[in-house]
């Protein structure tokens, strides 16, 4: 399965969000708590966990004022830290389990915190901005509790919480997976993108096109692309809407049945719930939207997806990181093709055009091109194992573009446990070195596993290659030659040692 299975008990996982600028005076300590999971823990327990976290942050800053605390390993727990915004911390406390499956990389756990925060900001804006709008913190908590709860639901299978384990070491959360196009298909896609960008008349739109759960095209920045892509794969693609679990998709789909109570903490902690306050999501003031709820999207008769998450007949909006621009989210689906169109909300607000006009333009001007693109991509699509390379199990990451490509999960699953454990250890070594240097540097590491398999890593100029080779007869020279051959044939020689 690739995930470490844990019970949903209060000791297995604790996740909190707190603000170091709040609750510093005696009697006001609860003010700093913005989110806590499990939500039914007593305030004394919540304050104990957050107090310990705050103490660890303060202590480590004495030795490294510029570098944030990232992880503290205790005898029974791993404490994973992420400073999501200045002085706003997210901390995950994970119980160490003697089961072999419960071996994880700290970076993989930290990426969960980064992902949920990034998605939250895309829908609601920054946590700090919400706190400034409504200083009691009630508005912020009323958004954080349901949002993170819905996100954690995706990590449950039955009643078991599934955290990334060593079996997922050849995957990279927080990146997009691209579809490679033939030249004729690429030309058709480029033509379609031009039409989509002009569907709002003189106002330029952004667009993203997906085929199954793979990215075909985007006009967004890398960071915004990751956020919109992640949400699309979680909730908007055909696989997501049909509630099917794609065996080859990078992002796993959680159970459609909520395993976590969605109730918030007590009214005392939530503070003000004044309906006149802005909700932070750009529309429907006073309404707390829950964009990560399951089974809330469906395909309308015109091909556009519809939802009541934002309210009846309301159009969803999101916030783009790069421009801090709020845009309307329109999603059109044809067979396995999903088109996401992002229309600046100021154009609609100013009365220059309306959403129905934009939808009509898409149907009127882009329908024929959409059919043609879907036909050409489907014809050239190699299926779930399209990116399998015989004899290799690999992961390629472009950290600058936030793109990754990996061996299909079904192929990675054929690797021996010893190989995966060695690969996990290799990635931990790379993570530690990257964290220590805080700058890009070329790196080459090779480890021989207990079963004589070779696991190898090469890093150069923002590109990373991780590989597992299980031919026990291979020497280090043979394994190095195999990596060289792979680099020349599939990576334009980027990872070659020539």
Report on this model:
By secondary structure, the chain is α+β, with helices and mostly antiparallel strands. It folds into three domains: 3-168, Beta-Lactamase (2-Layer Sandwich), CATH 3.30.450; 176-380, no CATH class; 393-490, Beta-Lactamase (2-Layer Sandwich). Helices cover 35% and strands 22% of the residues. The strands form five sheets. It has a six-stranded mixed sheet, with helices on both faces. Mean pLDDT is 87; it is low at 244-268 and 271-280. Pfam families: Intu_longin_1. InterPro entries: Ccz1, CCZ1/INTU/HSP4_longin_1. Residues 259-280 have a biased composition (Low complexity).
Biggest sheet, spatial arrangement of strands: 9-18-17-21-20-19
Q: Looking at the structure, what is the overall shape?
A: globular
Strand fraction band? 15-25%
State the share of residues found in helices, binned by percent. 25-40%
Number of H/I helices: 13
Strand tally, please? 21
Average pLDDT, all residues: 87
Domains (count): 3
State the end-to-end distance: 38 Å
Return the structural class. alpha+beta
| Sheet of most strands | 6 strands, mixed
What radius of gyration results from the CA coordinates? 23 Å
pLDDT < 50 stretches: 244-268, 271-280
């Amino acid at each position: 399965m690739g995930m470490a299975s844990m019970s949903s008990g209060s000791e297995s996982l604790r996740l909190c969000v707190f603000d170091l600028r709040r609750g510093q005076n005696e009697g006001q300590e609860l003010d700093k708590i913005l989110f806590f999971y499990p939500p039914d823990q007593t305030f004394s327990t919540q304050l104990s966990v957050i107090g310990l976290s705050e103490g660890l942050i303060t202590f480590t800053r004495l030795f490294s004022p510029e570098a944030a605390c990232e992880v503290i390993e205790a005898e029974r727990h791993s404490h994973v830290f992420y400073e999501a915004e200045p002085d706003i911390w997210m901390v995950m406390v994970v119980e160490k389990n003697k089961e072999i499956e419960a071996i994880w990389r700290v970076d993989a756990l930290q990426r969960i915190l980064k992902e949920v925060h990034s998605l939250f900001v895309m829908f609601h804006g920054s946590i700090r901005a919400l706190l400034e709008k409504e200083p009691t913190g009630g508005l912020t908590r009323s958004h954080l509790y349901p949002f993170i709860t819905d996100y954690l639901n995706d990590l449950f299978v039955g009643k078991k919480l599934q955290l990334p384990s060593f079996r997922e070491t050849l995957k990279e959360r927080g990146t997009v997976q691209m579809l490679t196009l033939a030249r004729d298909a690429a030309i058709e896609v480029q033509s379609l993108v031009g039409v989509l960008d002009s569907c709002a008349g003189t106002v330029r739109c952004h667009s993203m096109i997906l085929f199954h759960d793979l990215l075909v095209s985007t006009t967004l920045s890398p960071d915004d692309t990751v956020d919109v892509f992640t949400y699309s794969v979680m909730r908007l693609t055909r696989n997501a809407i049909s509630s099917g679990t794609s065996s080859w998709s990078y992002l796993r789909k959680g159970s459609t049945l909520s395993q976590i109570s969605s109730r918030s903490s007590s009214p005392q902690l939530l503070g003000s719930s004044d309906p006149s306050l802005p909700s932070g999501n750009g529309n429907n003031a006073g309404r707390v939207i829950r964009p990560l709820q399951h089974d809330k999207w469906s395909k309308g008769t015109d091909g556009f997806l519809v939802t009541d998450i934002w309210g009846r007949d309301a159009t969803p909006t999101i916030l783009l990181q790069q421009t801090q621009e709020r845009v309307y989210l329109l999603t059109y689906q044809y067979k396995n093709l999903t088109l996401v169109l992002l229309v600046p909300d100021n154009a609609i607000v100013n009365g220059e055009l309306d959403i129905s006009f934009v939808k009509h333009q898409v149907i009127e001007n882009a329908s024929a091109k959409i059919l043609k693109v879907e036909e050409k991509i489907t014809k050239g699509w190699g299926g779930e194992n399209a990116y399998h390379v015989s004899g290799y199990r690999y992961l390629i990451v472009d950290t600058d573009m936030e793109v990754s490509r990996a061996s299909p999960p079904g192929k990675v699953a054929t690797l021996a446990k010893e190989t995966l454990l060695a690969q996990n250890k290799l990635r931990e070594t790379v993570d530690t070195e990257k964290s220590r240097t805080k700058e890009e540097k070329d790196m080459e590491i090779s480890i021989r596993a207990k079963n004589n398999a070779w696991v190898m890593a090469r890093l150069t100029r923002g590109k990373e290659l991780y590989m597992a080779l299980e031919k026990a007869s291979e020497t280090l020279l043979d394994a190095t030659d195999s990596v060289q051959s792979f680099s020349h044939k599939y990576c334009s020689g980027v990872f070659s040692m020539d």
